[in-house]
Amino acid sequence: MIEEPMSKPTKPASTRHKSSTEAVHSGRDPSASYGFVNPPVYRGSTVVFPTLDALTARDQPYTYGRRGTPTVSALQEAICKLEGGDATFLTASGLQAVTTSLLAFVEAGDHVLITDSVYQPTRHFCDTVLARLGVTTTYYDPCIGSDLAALITPQTRVVFTESPGSQTFEVQDIPAISEIARTHNLWHVTDNTWASPLYFDALAHGADVSIQAATKYIVGHADAMLGAITTNTRAKPQVLRMHGALGVCPGSEETYLGLRGLRTLPLRLERHFRSALEIASWLEARPEIERVLHPGLPNDPGHAIWKRDFTGASGLFSAVLTPAPREAVAAFVDSLEFFGMGYSWGGYESLILPFDPRSYRTATKWEYDGQALRFHIGLEDVDDLKTDLEAGFARFNAARQS
């Protein structure tokens, strides 16, 4: 009879290798899985203890399914290595990673500073749940830089950044904001989903917490919901307590899909980056486009900071159409062959999403009258995507002239 090996979390090595190497090798130990290269999917709630003493001391690596499994440990280790953090905690979605992180650092009477370009559900959480708990929020101009110091009050506890914003793509000066947070003994939490740890080292640039909506590029195939919170040593105890108190845990299958997706993240993200930059540059020359919002473009207002701090970009950016009737916009987007119209991003497929940020911006003003469109450029051939968009522009022009 073959004896099952003891399941225990692997310990990250002290050396931090190149991200493509970490993505392949971190979080897996074939010797613990009978030589299989992928960690198995552990499904379960109950974990049994061999003795009363072990139960009382909880003296074993795993004690209950909600508190972790070897599959969860494997993905946590791999993401933590990529982020260069002290600990990673998985959640059931990116939004849950955001909300758990914020709750970890605030209590009634506190104040948080949130970028005005933040993911809209994060804003909703601040305006509803945090407000009910007696936590006030000030939204600030994402381009404020070191002037953020003027908004800090004695009650301020957290500065939340998202760079670039996932709809309007303002690039924040993360090192300057991190320095302000340190000076005032604040927590700096950042949503780093757009660049991922491959293209922006959030903790090395001063953040205490780096959040990934792992649903996006880590999973990478539009087939699972998952989030990750990676902390430095200072922030780890607070997040650990709140993560446990809220009963946060990811699904077994979703965790495995995150592990699977992570192995090819460097290859996929490189393709998303190059294809999106090519499409963005191509759109800049189109007469139907008023402006392209992509920090990788040389004339973008955030380009200098992006070039200084980032090593790449993702497949997500926005563009603003020249003003036209709704019928013309519908003619453009409704019959696209390769661009699905829907929420989320980061999968292999291209997406397009019309949006209007005017109703949920308070510290800044959206200046454009034309329809804003968010593009996610997938893994399709770029020439096919251009052909699809060209046909859409032909429909757009015909509809606005009729």
Question: Helical residue percent?
Answer: 25-40%
Give the beta-strand count: 12
Residue ranges: pLDDT <50 for 5 or more in a row? 1-13
Radius of gyration: 22 Å
Number of discrete helical segments: 13
The number of domains is 2
The CATH topology of the largest domain is what? Aspartate Aminotransferase, domain 2
Spatial order of the strands forming the largest sheet? 1-7-6-5-4-2-3
Query: What is the overall silhouette?
Result: globular
Helix-and-strand structural type: alpha/beta
Describe the overall structure:
The structure is a single chain. With 402 residues, this protein is α/β, with parallel strands linked by helices. The protein has two domains: 19-263, Aspartate Aminotransferase, domain 2, CATH 3.40.640.10; 265-401, Aspartate Aminotransferase, domain 1. Helix content is 36%, strand content 15%. The protein has helices spanning 19-25, 52-57, 70-83, 94-105, 120-132, 174-183, 196-199, 236-245, 252-263, 265-284, 303-309, 326-334, 382-401; strands spanning 87-91, 111-115, 136-140, 156-162, 187-191, 209-212, 227-231, 289-293, 316-321, 339-341, 350-355, 372-376. Strand 2, helix 5 and strand 3 (136-140) form a beta-alpha-beta unit. The protein is globular.
Name the features.
single chain; 402 residues; alpha/beta; Aspartate Aminotransferase, domain 2; Aspartate Aminotransferase, domain 1; seven-stranded mixed sheet; five-stranded mixed sheet; 13 helices; 12 strands; 36% helix; globular; disordered N terminus; Cys/Met-Metab_PyrdxlP-dep_enz; EC 4.4.1.8; cysteine-S-conjugate beta-lyase activity
